[in-house]
Give the backbone structure.
Amino acid sequence: MKKILFILFIAILAFSCSDDSIRNDNIELQNTAWARDTTCFISDRIIFLENGKCNYSYSASEYHSYDMVYSYNKPNVTMTFSDKSVFGVGKITGNKMYIEGWGTFTRY
């Protein structure tokens, strides 16, 4: 009888966990904006949106904007274009995001 109650307790415990208990790191980046630390005349920005989407924009003499998707698995972030080519792979520490080949972005 004790074994049956123990098994029943474990089953109830296992099934009582919901999807809410699974950490979704993407939510932490939603609605945040980041600007590249640079001294040149180009202004780079990345905005993380809802549903794993983000936007990269820059302006030099003209404005350009690219929609992408991202995945964030603390502390690593990966951003890809719709054709699955990788825009950047980086790491976030505090309010700094370093993207390989692009440099450091600061959250603002």
